[in-house]
Specification:
The complex is a heterotrimer of chains A (159), B (667) and C (178).
Chain A lengths: L1 H14 L14 H13 L16 H15 L4 H12 L14 H27 L9 H19 L1
Helix pairs in contact in A: 3-4
Chain B lengths: L1 H29 L2 H4 L2 H24 L6 H6 L6 H6 L5 H21 L6 H25 L24 H30 L4 H32 L10 H26 L3 H24 L12 H25 L14 H31 L9 H22 L9 H26 L4 H24 L6 H7 L2 H26 L1 E7 L4 E4 L2 E12 L3 E12 L2 E6 L2 E5 L5 E4 L1 E3 L4 E10 L5 E9 L1 H19 L33
Antiparallel strand pairs in B: 1-10, 2-3, 3-4, 4-5, 4-6, 6-7, 8-9, 9-10
Chain C lengths: L1 H5 L1 H16 L20 E4 L6 E3 L8 E6 L4 H16 L4 E6 L3 H11 L5 E5 L3 H6 L6 E5 L5 E6 L4 H18 L1
Parallel strand pairs in C: 3-4, 4-5
Antiparallel strand pairs in C: 1-2, 1-5, 3-6, 6-7
Classes of the chains: A mainly alpha (159), B alpha+beta (667), C alpha/beta (178).
């Protein structure tokens, strides 16, 4: 709770000082600008309630955006920029988890699920092939009801 | 005085719910009709008392009764009356009251629209719904009572409704969403009843299906409304963030879609019964999981309602009890003996089963992606984040695969489809789809593999659906007759599938061809986004009912002509001093133009967010189509003319009423 | 065998339930530091009290210290201040302060009024060292060993309980292993 107060106070405090944060950056080309937008969308604000640093106005997000921009100006690649931030704030700030032994099950889930499902379907098809083609016999009463229902349906259909 | 009456009404409804859980169920197990007869009146009574409680809370809001803690925390005397009305569900306690209102409402609806069901079945269904109600009523009364009072220190005024919620979206999104979430309780109740009384057959599927479809339709609308609301309200043009709370609503939707399709097979062919029952249980379990996740604080989210460990624990116990009890019942009572039925590799049964594989895989993916950080934290393996990049990478292939499968499966026939015949049927749609997709991509400029796959899937679904419609509507008596001959259920399917195609097209195009720019502008500046020029005309102040705002004016030009005048705002609310960004949007069927005012950079320079969003409205339009399809399907009259359910002692005569007769997806 | 498979969903549900239960009450915003096991990043910043002096990472060499990140704008820092004074006085803990994104004047007035538990205070108005340390909100307290390597980061206020149960064990461990 106290942390929330701190955080809110920080926001208000920073909002009151114009000019200390440039919210907008200039780029040489549209593709660089797009690269920046993509990067900040993939990085998570460590403080917020699940927001990327593009959408968050907390001071730490602004600092991180600034760092991304500076690193882009210095010519760093996307991996280098992300690694540099991860080195400070931890894996938490990456929205795309690494593929390592910890997250293997995560990345493998769709493949395992689909493959498993396909195996089940194959099993169903095979089992159905082995099933008999005879349907259980109908009792006289059931046969009569079926005849009646078929007659009704034919009537409705022709109407 | 009134809040206490509301409290009393809740307690009374709890008592009725307890009776409903026990009495008709006991009657059904012992064959005593007089006990079973209590089911409907009890359901009605339960709803009446919850309705009363809800009315009392609404009254407290509308009359500014700040002695009620919940009203004081979520309202304010300056709040416009329509927001006071919807603030009732703007916070945790009130939204739960809405939940239980929906649940008792659905229970009553089941009680009313089931005259033709066997008494044993309906008694058990209503009893199960009663049990779920008991759980939630207990939760409300014990941990989340909206009627708690702040006596004797009644605050002079309330803390105000969060400005983000002071919007039309709050009026519509939660009710629609809850209608869906809660509606799946009905399918769940039918499943549990079938497990209890052992009567799991095609008739059971026929009864369950309309309830499932309606819940699904409402959930589709609810999710679409949420996405739309976030888009125009939050100010940065996003429409889906894969946030845990958003995922929580998507999970029952994905599972519910699988359930809907599985029910079709069970109804038509009497197979896959165990699987369908499991899906019904799982879908509702996912609804409950969603309810838990957004209120327990276990996962961080901008949308989270509450993060209270005590409530979280209670809710988890409730959830665990419901799910575990149902799954134990399932494990012991689900049939293992398979219906001896034969169907070929390319039969409709198999295509629908494959549909289920993909949808359930998608469900699993979203569930694992949402809960994985919890698992790693539990195992002390650190804290990671899983967000958009992950889900986009893994979900898109599944979506595309589902679309492709849909197109092929549209032509499949029950029991057996000839491979050669099927291949020949697909040729025209394939050719058309390739052409149209290429044209669309050329139109938007730029080929990327995923854009192509997404657009192709959407077009593929559309052409296949229309080709099938063309095929089926051919008749010796002419095309019109052929079209009229198709059932509403069939048209429901057509609309539903078209809706999916529209949504997929919207999602693909806006993700791949949308442009987003953050630019620094002073009045007089012009910025370019794609083919559009944005002229920053002016920015000044204006006052609203409970806020002051920086009011910007922008002209949007295309080919030298002014096509829109936009007025984004940055509002400061009087109570609570919170600052809100109100974007202005020029909406169009084929594109949105989006402007939002960001931070003030210097005396007259502002950070402005400009966006071009092609086909974004299709996302939500598609969902509306899907919902319309659902509603159309359940209105199918052909199967409402039904003989009374098979009970030898009754005299059977066809009757006209009852809406539970929806049969096969195709003729 | 068939019936066995029907129990699978139940088993999965129980496992998920256990994980969810364990997650209740945990604070999802408390992150582990990415710098644990790494040395304090290089920096060159002014001493808050003596602007003409420049401080750098060698400040942390020689003994185990606490690095406390604080600011006058942070109410929780105000709350923990008395505990920090107590730690410095009673427990003989060396605390280095990092005045994060603050104004020098405000900070000096604050310390003057409330007392100064810090051996030295690093003045970081732009938050550059804070950023390099992965600070995302005050107050935060780091345990740094005698060779200047970060051993632990605590997010939130430091009080008696936090000291006893969290910081002291880490400090003792750092002292033993040098």
């Amino acid at each position: 709770m106290l942390r929330i107060i701190c955080f809110l106070t920080a926001i208000l405090a920073s909002g009151l000082s114009y000019g200390d944060v440039a919210a907008v950056y200039d780029f040489d080309s549209l593709s660089e600008e797009q690269r920046y937008q993509d990067l900040i969308a993939e990085l998570r604000c460590p403080k917020c309630q699940n927001q990327n640093i593009a959408d968050s106005n907390s001071p730490i997000s602004k600092d991180m955006r600034n760092a991304v921009y500076q690193m882009m100006l210095d010519g760093a690649s996307n991996e280098e920029i992300v690694e540099s931030l991860v080195g400070r704030f931890g894996e938490f700030v990456k929205y795309k988890p690494d593929l390592d032994s910890r997250t293997f099950m995560l990345w493998a889930t769709p493949a395992i699920a689909v493959l498993g499902g396909l195996l089940v379907v194959a099993g169903v098809v095979v089992r159905s092939r082995r099933a008999g083609t005879t349907a259980p016999a109908l009792s006289a009463e059931e046969q009569a009801r079926i005849d009646k229902m078929l007659a009704n349906r034919d009537q409705n259909d022709n109407g | 005085m009134y809040p206490e009456l509301g409290q009393l009404a809740l307690i009374l409804s709890l008592l009725l719910a307890v009776l409903l859980s026990v009495v008709p169920l006991a009657g059904s197990l012992t064959g005593r009709d007089n006990l079973q007869a209590f089911a409907r009146p009890l359901a009605a009574g339960m709803f009446v008392f919850v309705g009363l409680a809800f009315a009392v809370l609404t009254h407290a809001f509308v009359t500014d009764d700040f002695s009620v803690a919940y009203v004081a925390n979520n309202s304010n005397s300056m709040l416009p009356w329509y927001y006071k009305f919807s603030a009732v569900w703007g916070g945790h306690e009130g939204s739960l009251l809405l939940w239980i209102l929906m649940l008792t409402g659905w229970t009553l609806a089941v009680a009313i629209f089931s005259r033709r069901l066997p008494s044993v079945m309906i008694s058990q269904v209503l009893s199960v719904l009663g049990m779920v109600s008991v759980g939630f009523m207990l939760f409300i009364i014990v941990t989340s009572n909206p009627f708690d009072r702040l006596l004797p220190n009644v605050p002079a005024d309330g803390a105000d409704l969060n400005p983000l919620l002071q919007d039309f979206g709050l009026i519509v999104h939660p009710p629609m969403l809850y209608m869906g979430y809660v509606g799946f309780a009905v399918a769940f109740a039918f499943a549990i009843a079938a497990l209890i009384n052992g009567r799991l057959d095609a008739a059971w599927a026929r009864w369950s299906r309309p309830w499932t479809t309606v819940a699904w339709a409402f959930l589709s609308v609810g999710i679409a409304l949420g996405s739309w609301w976030a888009y125009y309200e939050l100010g940065w043009g996003g429409w889906w963030f894969w946030d845990p709370v958003e995922n929580a609503s998507l999970l029952p939707w994905l599972s519910g879609t699988a359930l809907m399709h599985s029910l079709a097979v069970t109804e038509k062919r009497g197979v896959f019964k165990s699987w369908t029952v499991l899906l019904a249980i799982v879908t509702f379990a996912l609804s409950l999981l969603g309810t838990f996740l957004v209120r327990s604080g276990v996962l961080t989210s901008v949308h989270a309602f509450a993060s209270d460990p005590e409530r979280g624990t209670f809710l988890l116990v409730l959830l665990a009890f419901t799910v575990i009890a149902s799954l134990v019942l399932y494990a012991f009572r689900a049939p293992v003996v398979h219906v001896r039925s034969r169907y070929g590799t390319l039969s409709r049964e198999i295509f629908l089963l494959l549909n289920n594989v993909l949808l359930v895989s998608a469900t699993l993916l979203v569930a694992v992606g949402t809960l994985y950080p919890l698992v790693l934290d539990f195992l002390d393996l650190g804290k990671i984040s899983i967000g958009e990049p992950f889900f986009n990478l893994t979900f898109s292939p599944l979506a595309v695969a589902t679309g492709l499968l849909l197109g092929v499966g549209t032509f499949s026939r029950w029991k057996k489809t000839d491979a050669g015949w099927l291949a020949r049927k697909l040729l025209w749609p394939l050719a058309v789809s390739v052409l149209v997709s290429t044209a669309v991509m050329a139109g938007y400029g730029g080929f990327t593999p995923w854009a192509f796959l997404g657009i192709f899937s959407a077009v593929w679904i559309t052409t296949a659906t229309f080709w099938d419609l063309w095929d089926k509507s051919s008749s010796r008596k002419g095309r019109i007759h052929g079209l009229k001959r198709q059932s509403r259920s069939y048209y429901g399917m057509v609309l539903g599938h078209l809706g999916l195609a529209i949504t997929m097209a919207g999602a693909t195009v806006v993700s791949n061809y949308g442009i987003e720019r953050d630019v620094r502008m002073v009045p007089g500046d012009v910025a370019e986004v794609g083919d559009y020029q944005f002229v920053f005309v002016d920015i000044g102040e204006r006052r609203g009912q409970n806020f002051t705002a920086q009011y910007g004016s922008f002209d949007v030009m295309l080919d030298g002509e002014r096509i829109a005048e936009l007025h984004p705002e940055k509002r400061q609310y009087a109570v609570g001093m919170s600052v809100m960004t109100e974007a202005d949007i020029d909406a169009g069927l084929f594109r949105d133009i989006f402007v939002a005012v960001g931070e003030r950079i210097s005396d007259n320079a502002w950070a402005i967010r400009l966006q071009y969003k092609p086909l974004i409205r299709w996302l939500w339009l598609g969902a509306l189509f899907m919902a319309a399809g659902g509603f159309l399907a359940i209105s199918d009259r052909r199967y409402r003319i039904r003989e009374r359910a098979i009970e030898p002692s009754e005299n059977s005569s066809p009757s006209q009423i009852g809406t539970q007769g929806v049969a096969g997806v195709v003729s | 065998m068939k019936r066995f498979w029907l129990f699978m969903p139940l088993i999965v549900a129980v496992i998920v339930g256990v994980v969810l239960f364990a997650g209740i009450g945990k604070d999802p915003t408390k992150l582990d530091s990415a710098l644990v096991g790494k040395p304090v990043p290089a920096f060159s910043l002014e001493d808050l009290n003596k602007p003409e002096n420049s401080l750098n990472e060698s400040l942390f060499q020689g003994e185990v210290t606490l690095l406390n990140v604080w600011g006058t704008w942070c109410p929780a820092c105000r709350d923990e201040h008395a505990d920090l004074m107590w730690l410095a006085r009673e427990k003989n803990v060396v605390i280095i302060g990092l005045n994060y994104k603050d104004s020098r004047d405000d900070a000096l007035v604050w310390l003057d009024r409330l007392g100064d538990p810090y051996r030295k205070v690093i003045y970081d108005p732009k938050g550059t060292l804070g950023f390099d340390l992965g600070v995302y909100g005050a107050p935060e307290t780091f345990v740094i060993d005698a060779s200047g390597v970060v051993r632990y980061r605590h997010v939130g206020v430091v009080n008696g309980e936090v000291w006893e149960q969290i910081l002291l064990p880490v400090i003792n461990d750092a002292r033993e292993k040098g």
